[in-house]
Amino acid sequence: MSAQKRRVAVFDVDGTIFRSSLFIQLVERLIERGHIPEEMHNTYAREQSKWVNREGTYDEYIRAMVDASEKYFKGVYYGDFRDAAQYVVEAQWKRVYRYTRDLLKELKKRDYYLLAVSHSPKTILDFFCPRLGFDKVYGVIYEIGPEDRLTGKVADEHIIFNKANTLKRAVEKENLTLHHSIGVGDSESDVPFLELVAKPICFNPSSKLYRHAKRNKWNVVVERKDVIYEL
Fold this sequence. Notes:
The protein is α/β, with parallel strands linked by helices. It is built from 10 helices and 8 strands. The chain has a domain at 6-20 and 95-230: HAD superfamily/HAD-like (Rossmann fold). Helix content is 45%, strand content 24%.
């Protein structure tokens, strides 16, 4: 007799659980420690400034950083990359939203399988997510070349950059069910996996995700300071 399938709860991480971006914090630590040159910041400074001044979008800011990482991550020792990731998590892992932190605790008690699907590096997610009770983590894996140095390339991009396919893969491999499943995300890149779950929750959503949520009558939850409310 096959084992009973477990219900799954799938979460985006950056901006959904962590109150910033693990990727941003990792890049800043690598620059601070001299593992990548300060000039990398110049490649995304314009988009960062536009986002801070609410003249551009967060996605444009992150995309500029991701595009720059292919060039500037190349040649970084993986050990330095890993140490920077560990440092960031040890210093900042409690900087999370109350709503998603408490939801994770509740779902863990109810024996949900907790799945994290993120576009941050898996190296830093592997330090962060277990602290919050996750059973499995999918994130960006950077290729490691000769002398244990990053190549700047991402392995299996076709899998990790499609969150719906990532969820389907996990459901099949881990003997899970989408019945009574829950998904939590904050941006339009989360729409594909939110469309698969029984209960999608849009948490502090971007404008595009908010419009999609309202059209589809999805739950919208906002946390502002110490207030949590539904729209």
